[in-house]
Amino acid sequence: MNRNSPSEPQSGFTLVELLTVIAVTTILAALIIIAVGKAIETANTTKAATQIRQICLASQLYANEHSGHLPKVAADNVGLDDPQDYFFVTRNGVAELENTALAHYLESDAVAEAVLMAPSDDGLTEGGQEGRNFSYSFNFLINKGELAPGSSSPSGFEKALRTVNLSYIEKPEAKALVYEEELPNDSFCVWFIDRPTTRYGGESHVGFVDAHVELLPNEEIFGNSDLGDLVPANRQY
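RE: above sequence
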């Protein structure tokens, strides 16, 4: 007499189990992507701070060899004839590093060019065009420009004759030398005009005269005279 054999268990996933595995895998992948994104963001933030510190240290090295005076800050097409005394010069809004102070104290044009571009900066101009090659604005009050007749202070965009001396800066730990701006495509690199970057959630890196770097809220940077006025007005010129 034949007896029916008990049915063998079916192998493989049921549809519900398969959908569960897919859902869990998708969630894990999303979490990994978020974690990797945050890790990259953290790395870029750290690298940007390091780059600004390099700029600040280069300025101190220059000052040590120039009786305490910092390198000059250039407006567009200014300083092309004597770039060795400028952080860098700009020609039609594009930074040129050859023979500049930054290139000299950062060892080469290539190193200086890399340092001037923040890792999170896509290099686009405000109109979306490519070609911008620097991410930072300098404190234009570093410059001591030529005084116009009858004026007590320079326009700020004239050719700098010399720069402020570090010995005049009473609180170097509280005075901004350079910061990361949003779109330095306006041909200048000027603290009181250019907007701080939005690449770090409403904060920007600021490099101080003493070479330390902080990530500060943008509202504490833009137009803040306490941060930007390097020396008392009666000692500027």
